[in-house]
């Protein structure tokens, strides 16, 4: 950490810039200056897959601010963008480049979310299809426990499906860079060779050997699906070989079944921020459940406001005006589509702060309450 | 209660009035976007620039008045157009943590958390209900005929003057409800949960304005100290005056607990309208008041971006005219004069039943 950073994070400067904090002043001069917050500039957008009629996949190279603490292969990052300068939307993406150190450039690879309606904001769609080089995005620090241990085992199995390839690709690249001498079995499932992300690089890896077996499988074209028998053939005694797996739900259940509770298996779940985009319209019958995650209470959705439903379930969330003006009842919604009874607006974003006194759930909804 | 001017409306008409307000609200919400985001970001940028300029100009002794002016403006913008409005959640839809009602902290001694409770909840929900809205006289002044006169209120003008000079401290102490503690209705211990937050904020604010910034200007310690205190004073006087014009000019209605029980949405809108007053002025003036010069529109739609209030004001006024409702507005001097007269008049016991001058100022639409 340079002298400038030490100074920027000093108690003295914090006291002088109170109550707003140093970053609120720095960002005015240059969005890439920061003392604590993490932001990044898009320096490159490269199409990985572009099959007509299918959502494209792209790798975005990001130059983070010096506050970025680096990442370990397999981790993800929260990335927020402001489309048209107004609403900021944040989504989680896996990092595809190998381990990075503080302030290093890194890449995220993503498929443009096909479900997002055009007029709504989709982070992936914006970044893949429209974001100009130079766009500044907001980041968290790298997060997640889906990482390789410091001492890499002799034999490693990496399994992925679709865009779940990104974190394991980061691992593979890191292993190569760390000049891992052991064996790596790399299994990836894709719809067709045309849909293969990182095709050229994987081809290169396969041809150069170096103890990495690459298997690119396309079950729709007749390749074997993931099964214990198939795994056993590839990696005898695979249940005891340290394995990292990431992919869509059907693949993940097959992996779980095959490993049968083995401790060698590490998995990453994607929380997909794509609840039903249509939401529910006013007057639709209430359905689904309402989960109050912190209290561990689930109730059937009765169509009332979330505040009423919480109170009926015996919880005592904070509230004031009960008409949407004082914000006392603001609560984080982690999942589900809710409708604002004052405006009729529906919203499906995960991890969104809502006023529960004027929000009714349209789908199953989870609250941090 | 005073001056109820909606007796001519049937309950159905009141609900229709409320529906028109709801429709207006929905139209505004649907239209929020880039322009609102760009606006508030520009205001924040100007405020920070003014602040930096103000702090820096203290190094240049001849520029002292300019430094004080810049810093005063910075504090006014920070507290009013940015702080007050952001903390109402007007920009929460942007998803920017720097402009989020839950995270914003303002450049004044009152912790935002405590202010939000007494302001957003108590004042905006129970606006002008005697005995519920503590902003009627802030517990120290007599601002309504229906507040029982006591000899204590002979000091009304003095208390008002002191509140003006020390306004940020008055806002800080508001939540303690000192007057209720004095009356034995509340104990000091019941305010304990507030103390830590208060002390921390007071420490940070005073350290910055009265020790650190004076210290970093070295030989100009004393002029900087006086300058910072002056900027705080200017902000206090300005904010006090604008805010007092919002609910206290004559003609503004107050309500009793009984008549506001089981209020409908239409009645709520009506109370917000009749309990507030606007100030006319230039665009810059509106921005400097944080658009609280449009107190009526603010009370109707407290969580919508304040920059929209001037835009919808003509429409609100037109609706009021159609329903024969008073829309209380006037230039600053007139509204201030009216408030000042009220402060003086209410220092003395009410001379029933006459009062000086018409109750409804501004241009009440004919019923
Ligand atoms: S309780 Fe006041 S906004 Fe929900």
TrEMBL record, chain A:
Residues of the FAD-binding FR-type domain: 35-149
Cross-referenced Pfam families: Fer2, NAD_binding_1
Domain of life: Bacteria
Gene3D superfamilies recorded: 3.10.20.30, Nucleotide-binding domain of ferredoxin-NADP reductase (FNR) module, Translation factors
Cofactor(s) the protein requires to work: FAD
GO-annotated molecular function: 2 iron, 2 sulfur cluster binding; metal ion binding; oxidoreductase activity
Keywords, sorted A to Z: 2Fe-2S, FAD, Flavoprotein, Iron, Iron-sulfur, Metal-binding, Oxidoreductase
InterPro entries (UniProt xref): 2Fe-2S_ferredoxin-like_sf, 2Fe-2S_ferredoxin-type, Beta-grasp_dom_sf, FAD-bd_FR_type, FNR_nucleotide-bd, MRET, OxRdtase_FAD/NAD-bd, Riboflavin_synthase-like_b-brl
PANTHER family: NADH OXIDOREDUCTASE HCR
Protein name, as recorded: 2Fe-2S iron-sulfur cluster binding domain-containing protein
Organism: Nocardioides guangzhouensis
Top-level taxonomy: Bacteria, Bacillati, Actinomycetota, Actinomycetes, Propionibacteriales
